[in-house]
Every structure is written in structure tokens, then in C-alpha cells.
Amino acid sequence: MIYRTIIFLLINFAALGLGGLFTSKGVSSAWYQQINKAPWTPPGWVFGAAWFTIMICFSVYMAALWTKDKNHTILILLFVIQWILNVAWNPLFFYFHLPLVALVTITLLTLLVGFLLFSNLTYNGSYSWLLVPYFVWLLIATSLNGFIVLKN
Known about the structure:
It is built from six helices and no strands. By secondary structure, it is mainly alpha-helical.
């Protein structure tokens, strides 16, 4: 399981790195600074800390699920779709300034992660708790993105 966890860590942190290419300049951009943001928007450092923790938990979750799941094709397909949606959100929002398209993307990501969580609750046992931070964070991030769509 350690080998699989390392593989998932590398893939997930690659996603964070790609997203970071768009986020770092996007947060300081005039466009982002001038839009109306939700009053519950956390300080910038929270995003980095949250994603760091989430990706560690998600990697362990996926490695554990891999050992229990017999249909690796479906699992990998869901993981790849999750990865693409996760990476795609950053340029859609911060680079292309398409908050509505980004909202659709993050909503799909939230639904997919929710599906992974709830469809494997009993199957993946206590490892399922490791996916809860990802799901909760996506609910918060979706609400932040939704606020921006509604108020700008």
C-alpha cells in the first residue's frame, strides 16, 4: 500500500502544481481583486494548507481503495476524471475568468468526490474518513465560486 500511496501522492501533487501555475498570478490579478467575494472566503494561506492536507488524505484513501476494489478500470477512470476536473478549475477561473464554467466544473468535481465517498463508505471502511476533508472543502469552494457567479 505504501508504493501505491506514493504513486497517488505524486499524481495528486502534480495536479496541485499545475493548478498553482494559474492560481498564484490569478489571486493577485486585478480581476480577482476587484470581484465581489463571499464574506466567508478564508485567508489565502488556508487554501494551500487545505489542499496539502487533502491531497495526502486523498492519496492514502485511493491507495486503500485500490487494494479493495476489484474493478480498477472504473476506479482509474473516476480518478482521472477527478484529476482533470480539479486541474481544469484553476485556469477556467483564474486565467480565462470564466467563473460560471468554473462553477460547473467544481460542481461536477464535488459530485464525483461525493460519489466516491458515499459509494465506498462501507467498502473502504475507516479509510473513508480520509475523503471527508476533500468533500467538505469542495462544498465550501463551490459555495465561494457560486457566490462570485451570483454577485458579479
